[in-house]
Design a protein that fits this description.
By secondary structure, this protein is of the alpha+beta class. 29% of the residues lie in helices and 33% in strands. The strands form two sheets. A five-stranded mixed sheet has the order 4-1-7-5-6. Strands 2-3 form a two-stranded antiparallel sheet. Helix 1 runs parallel beside helix 3. Bound molecules: magnesium ion. Magnesium ion binds next to strand 1 and helix 1.
């Protein structure tokens, strides 16, 4: 059987502000600030969603789930990821693995990595071991280093048998 493999790349950044919950990878993280956005502003799931959509040459997250559509106000990004992955599956692809880099000066995220992996794997019907997550700071430099925003980079590999 021939197997077609494709890679995808995603990126997302949201500003931190008061009065919002911090949700990363579908997990609530205790912190005094949260990410600002129309949905729950989970930049980890948004980057991953875009990587999956890109790998399958589908429209991006902003096109599929517009941030001026009231339907997506406060949306749970796990549901957006689930819908997007459903579209990828409809094209015959399945996830091989995903690798993520979360860039945040604060809070420390390392202890939440196992639960974020579990959260993401459960949405995608994958194994925790198919999901890689690394947490980096920006050494105090730039807007992320100053604690004004959190960014995530995501790569995925998908495959389909012919
Ligand atoms: Mg976003």
């Amino acid at each position: 059987m021939n197997c077609e493999i494709r890679i995808g790349l995603g990126e997302d950044l949201h500003r931190l502000k008061e009065g919002r919950e911090l949700i990363l990878g579908g997990v609530k993280i205790p912190y005094e600030l949260g990410l600002d956005g129309h949905s729950d502003a989970d930049c980890v799931l948004h980057a991953l969603t875009d990587a999956l959509l890109g790998a399958a040459s589908l429209p991006d997250i902003g096109t599929l789930f517009p941030d001026d559509d009231p339907m997506y106000c406060g949306a749970d990004s796990k549901r957006l990821l689930e819908k997007a992955y459903g579209m990828v599956r409809e094209k015959g692809y399945r996830l091989v693995n995903a690798d993520l880099v979360i860039i945040a000066q604060k809070p420390k995220l390392k202890e939440f990595v196992p639960i974020m992996k579990e959260s993401i794997a459960s949405v995608l019907g994958a194994r925790d071991s198919d999901i890689g997550i690394k947490c980096k700071t920006q050494e105090g430099l730039g807007p992320i280093g100053e604690g004004l925003a959190i960014e995530c980079l995501a790569t995925v590999l998908i495959e389909r048998g012919n």
